[in-house]
Amino acid sequence: MKKKKKITRDQQPEFKRRSPWVDVWRRLKRNKLAVVAMVVLIVIVLATIFAEQLTPYDYAKQNAKEMLQFPSWKHPFGTDNYGRDLLARVLKGGQTSLLIALASTLGAGIIGTILGATAAFFKGAYATFVMRLMDVIMGIPSLLLAVCVATVLGTGIVSTIIAVGISAITSFCRIAYAQVLKESANDYLQAATVCGARSLRKVFVHLLPNSLAPLIVQATLRLGGGIMIISSLSFVGLGVQPPTPEWGSIISTARPYLRDFWPFVTFPGIAIALTVISFNLFGDGLRDALDPRQK
Amino acid sequence: MLTYVLRRIGIMIPVVLGILLIVFAINRMSGDPVAALLGGDATPEQIEAERDRLGLNDPLPVQFFNYVKGIVTRFDLGTSYVSKRPVSEQIVARLPTTLAITMISLLISSLVGITFGVISALNQNTKVDYILTVAALIVASLPTFWFALMLVLIVSVKLGWLPATGLDSFKHWILPCVVSGLGPVSNLCRTTRSSMLEVIRQDYIRTARSKGISENKVIFKHALKNALFPVITVFGIIASFSVGGQVVVESIFSIPGIGAYMMEAILSRDYPVVQGTVLILSFLICVINLLVDIAYGFADPRIRARYTRQKSEKRKEPTQPSQPQGVNA
After folding, report:
1. How far is B328 from chain A (nearest CA, A)?
2. Long-range contacts: B6-15, Cβ < 8 Å, 24+?
3. CA angle in degrees (0–180, nearest 5) for B162-B179-B230
4. Over the stretch B52-94, which tens digit does the pLDDT of each residue have?
5. Where are the domains of chain A?
6. What is the distance between the alpha carbons of residues A115 and A177, in angstroms, rounded to a whole number?
7. I need a surface site. Which of A26, A162, A173, B242 has the fewest CB within 10 A?
């Protein structure tokens, strides 16, 4: 008869402790489109960050001799109505667009998540108030709400961030609300209560980290949507004003030249479309990778 | 069913009031209307008299009450800074055009989007499905204004097939309707696909097939009918996007609708017009959402049953376990 061996701590069969993110990454890698989108996004972000170093031209330097030139080796995207290199302006414009999208999504994400999570946790009149408020904001189309806010705040980068961010709060709030409500039913929350955790600790240390996945996906998708709203806002004449380059405002400036000079409208638009498509594809892939059950 | 309809209307009222409150707050924050209305050479006495006349010296709650009362009783949306005419005049004149474009594009895009969605679901994981899904995603990622400009550039300027501006003939309607229908098509296609995929895995579809019913009948009579419920619910969201997008579409195609009016007002900083148009378009969306909800109630036998049963079995109801409060909030 075999003698029962006592297993001590170091003799335990070795389990590889894997972070959940490793699994997510492995699942994400299987989705070819999402990986391509991620690479494209990285390239776009790097290209816009290093906009000034990538092209020999200054995005603001006017050149009366080279106005409205079609694409050539010298100017791959052509030049604009003041003879400025269009590639330099599109890259620099991306910097503005991405910065505003990032800031507004981050702000909206934080505010929306806090509102939604606390509403789901504390319930009662506070929850009713918050969620009804979100219903009202949802009732106004995001572009119209942004237009409305921008008429009060005026134009410029900061007011654009606020205008775009306000309409994004609702989706984060609703997701955080639903998630925290779902998570509240779990035993670990009771355990935390038994251990004497205070309300805020329960919300922010226990519930929120477990509700993070759909919020991250939403943030990715929202970044794409944000870029669309920002550029629409600038195109309409609110938002970022010329001479600051931004994808929407470049297209707005280019509108009168549509008939005779196609590159002016085309290239910034392709930049927007490519970025938004990549965010959407990556966001979709991320959703499948973060929560395989949902698919 | 009347209870259901009334309850839906009851839910809509606070939303409409909230929108009114937001627009009112923005209205009061966007600078002094009196100076803009009277022009630069008004004396302080004139300005003070005008402020009194407009009720701007009243407490804010009174102002809000009067604002809502003015809209409800006289459809008073304020006076344009530029034309000095009531905003409502222009809105009434322009509303039919905006409604027509939205409705036509929504109708066509529902047909196209649902068809594509069904095709995509029936061919799941084939090339057709793949192309349709990716195409829908790409289309959803194109900014409306840019897509509109590119269509004008290619179809009108380069090819000369369709006119780029105005609404004079049938041909003029094609481009604006295509542009405003684009987002809805992709959204409906994606929703229909996923809901169809869920439905065709159900047992009753297998039963229908095993009974020997033709495949077409199974798909269109048994599956599609049930797959369309989630599609109805997203219709409200789609309509909202479509109405919001009119601002850009109308101004690019020079269509005399509410959206173009708003765009002109933004450029000339004519705030009462901006707020009036935002209010009307938001209200329009609320009404569309209400209609969608009511349509859903009539279409879904579960909701119909719940409300007709409530009448006959009223006494039984309290014995049913009620949901904990706040879950449905």
Report:
1. 10
2. B8/B290, B8/B293, B8/B294, B8/B297, B9/B290, B12/B286, B12/B289, B12/B290, B14/A132, B14/A135, B14/A136, B15/A135, B15/A136, B15/A139, B15/B286
3. 145
4. 777 777 777 888 888 888 888 777 777 777 777 888 888 888 8
5. 39-47+79-294
6. 8
7. A26
Judge: A135–B15 Cβ closer than 8 Å, yes or no.
yes
**B137: which residues sit within 8 A by CB, 6+ positions away?**
A277, A280, A281, A284, B186, B190
Q: Which of residues 289-308 of B touch A (CB under 8 A)?
A: 289
Residue A250's nearest CA partner among A93, A57, A66 is: A93
Q: Taking the model in full, what pTM does it have?
A: 0.80
Instruction: Check B137 against A281: CB less than 8 A apart.
Output: yes
Q: What is the pLDDT of residues B120-146, one digit of tens each?
A: 888 888 888 888 888 888 888 888 888
Structure tokens at A160: 């654009």
How confident is the model over B195-224, as pLDDT tens digits?
Answer: 888 888 888 888 888 888 888 888 888 888
User: How do the domains of chain B map onto residue ranges?
Assistant: 2-74, 95-301
Give phi and psi for B22, each to the nearest 5.
-60, -50
A39-47+79-294: CATH class: mainly alpha
CB A251 to CB B23 under 8 A?
Answer: no
- Pairwise CA distance, residues B277 & B269, whole Å: 13
Q: Domain B95-301 class?
A: mainly alpha
Query: pLDDT by residue (tens digit) across A42-91?
Result: 998 888 888 777 777 777 777 767 666 677 777 777 777 776 777 878 88
Q: Write down the ipTM of this complex.
A: 0.78
Cβ contacts (< 8 Å) between A33 and chain B: which residues?
Answer: 134
- Which bin fits A33, alpha (ψ -120 to 50), beta or left (φ > 0)? alpha
Token duo for residue B34: 């009196």
Q: Which two tokens stand for residue A53?
A: 């170093």
- CB contact under 8 Å between B22 and A281, yes or no, is no
- At A116, give phi and psi (nearest 5°): -65, -45
Q: Which residues in chain B have Cβ-Cβ distances shorter than 8 Å to A132?
A: 14, 18
The DSSP code for A285 is H
B274–chain A nearest CA distance, Å: 7
Q: For residue A275, what are its two tokens?
A: 């970025």
Which residues, at least 6 apart from B122, have a Cβ–Cβ distance to it below 8 Å? B196, B200, B219
Q: Residue A111 above 90 pLDDT?
A: yes
Scanning B131-170 for CB atoms below 8 A from A yields 134, 137-138, 140-146, 149-150, 152-153, 157
Residue of B nearest to A34 (CA): B134
Q: What is residue A85's DSSP assignment?
A: B
